[in-house]
Write a structure and sequence with these properties.
single chain, alpha/beta, D-Maltodextrin-Binding Protein, domain 2, 5-stranded mixed beta sheet, about 450 residues
Length: about 450
């Protein structure tokens, strides 16, 4: 049975190699070759027949060599241990020596784009880099049984974050990058309402923190009212189009809500528990869960982001960006090595490994079974984030200038240059300038 599975992996790896060879290195051409992936189950059947016959008698030759893996520094030892476990369990693949190097998710993508050939065979990266990596030909498509592994074992958000066009290019590792609400339950009586949270903080003389001059947190309001702000990239990774409609009635509703929040005496601009004082509630991420727990003590609580009542009388759920860590595989010349890389990547992202990684370094799993584990369920920060991610979009690629522009918009609100006294026409003009500038970054 093991040889049957390994033979199927080898066949799938060969199909994936064909996709790359046929032009899968670019976003457009990879999508064009997607029908080949759909047709691949016939090859699986052939592999099954071979596995029952010749392959059952003859070991599959997966070759030998070195496999380099890039992961975050705090997971190097963990990944090394898991890779060793994998090869002990799969001696047919043990002709490879694994080198695990500390390269974080942000740096991994940049390094791969600089030198794909010299880059790691397997590497972790943040989902917002996937389009650029595909365009650079740095990712091997995930097909057949490998694709089924991704889609059947991981939550929808992380699985979708691994897709460019119609093709999946990575194995999800986490669903733990986003923001939600930490609050003092002795202060906040209703964490589902932004207005009530602010009122409770005002009444208790406590501070409510949210970083409204950040291009990451700020969209929580605009996406809530239905606005769009995303960028398309071309084969070379350049920005080709900005999809934005902030200069709209929905955008004005969102902007007015940010202005209203900033006008509260309880409001403080920020997103770090460690940098906050007298906190009643704060919009922050899982990376600050320990600090938040220490700050609130027995009153520590978490929830998804609240809703707010817009100036138009409608209720809107705060949204924003969600983030995922993915594990990608560089296209390989040798089908045997590619098969081993895919099998190893599956092992490094399966349920048991994701749970072990959570216990080791606190990363929240994307595996749906792992998410039901009692330890995960008991982690109130991860539970709050999981609920919030249902209302977010995966962060894509954004120009560097966008982040500066969003900061300027928030700074103008904080300084009172844009205020509640501004007319709808003036607010629309502000958003039109913002929108036009965003569009200019893709021209």
């Amino acid at each position: 049975m093991k040889k049957k599975v390994l033979a199927t992996l080898l066949t799938a790896a060969m199909v994936a190699g064909c996709l790359v060879g046929c032009g899968g290195g670019s976003g457009d051409s990879a999508a064009d070759t997607a029908p080949a992936a759909d047709a691949a189950p016939a090859a699986d059947s052939a592999a099954d027949d071979t596995a029952e016959g010749d392959a059952a008698a003859e070991p599959v030759d997966y070759g030998s060599g070195t496999i380099t893996i890039w992961v975050a520094e705090n997971t190097v030892d963990f990944t090394t241990q898991k890779a060793q476990e994998f090869f002990e369990a799969n001696p047919d693949m043990a002709g490879y020596t694994v080198t695990v190097e500390p390269v974080g998710e942000g740096d991994a993508a940049s390094n791969m784009l600089t030198d794909v050939e010299g880059g790691a065979d397997i590497f972790g990266f943040a989902q917002d880099q996937i389009t650029r990596l595909v365009s650079a030909g740095a990712l091997s498509p995930i097909v057949n049984d490998n694709l089924t592994f991704v889609t059947s074992n991981n939550d929808e958000g992380s699985a979708n974050a691994a897709v460019v066009g119609d093709v999946t290019y990575a194995y999800p590792m986490t669903s733990d990058n986003g923001y939600f609400l930490y609050y003092d339950k002795s202060v906040v009586t209703d964490p589902t309402s932004l207005e009530q949270i602010v009122a409770d903080c005002e009444a208790a003389g406590k501070n409510f923190y949210m970083e409204i001059n950040s291009g990451w947190y700020q969209p929580a309001f605009f996406f809530a009212t239905g606005c769009t702000l995303t960028y398309d990239t071309g084969d070379a990774g350049n920005f080709t189009q900005c999809n934005v409609d902030y200069a709209s009635d929905a955008g004005v509703v969102a902007l007015k809500e940010i202005i209203e929040l900033a006008s509260s005496p309880a409001f403080q601009n920020g997103s770090s528990v460690d940098n906050g004082t007298n906190i009643g509630a704060i919009v922050d991420g899982t990376w600050d869960s320990r600090s938040a727990s220490d700050a609130f003590g027995d009153n520590y609580a978490c929830a998804k982001l609240p809703s707010f009542e817009g100036s138009d009388g409608n209720t809107y759920q705060l949204s924003g960006f969600g983030g995922y860590k993915l594990l990608g595989i560089k296209p390989q010349v040798e089908p045997g090595k590619l098969a081993v890389c895919h099998a190893l990547a599956q092992y490094l992202t399966n349920k048991d490994t994701q749970l072990a990684r959570y216990n080791a370094v606190g990363w929240g799993p994307s595996n749906v079974e792992a998410q039901q584990d009692s330890a995960i369920q008991a982690d109130v920060a991860l539970s709050a984030l999981a609920e919030q991610l249902q209302y977010t979009i995966p962060q894509g690629n954004y120009p560097g200038d966008y982040w500066t522009l969003a900061t300027s918009l928030g700074d103008d609100i904080i300084a009172g240059t844009i205020s509640a006294s501004s007319s709808d026409e003036e607010l629309t003009n502000v958003l039109q300038t913002f929108q036009d500038t965003c569009i200019s970054y893709a021209q």
